[in-house]
């Protein structure tokens, strides 16, 4: 099923927001700056401790997209950055295997010439027939 255009939301991660600032205050400040705020959530670690990241969910509009271009000031604080949440790629495992193979190829191509000459002398000495001295 597809969502209607008016139901779509924009998610923004706001960084560097102090833990002392409540989500209600953040939502109020964003609304005062004409951002169409739907919800604001404080992010937590797996053990439940709060971190300085806040998820802001905005109604989709042109002003909502401006949050990435012009980061807001929340409760008078500057230095706040906004970024889109990361999406996992389906073929990420295949990409890492390809990167590993490319790295190994580069390493093999840039080995010093000494190892090549050592291999050549070993091959030459292996091909020389051995003369056995008999008495």
From TrEMBL:
Residues 116-126 have a biased composition (Polar residues). It comes from Eumeta variegata (Bagworm moth). This is Uncharacterized protein. Residues 116-135 are annotated as: Disordered. It comes from the Eukaryota.
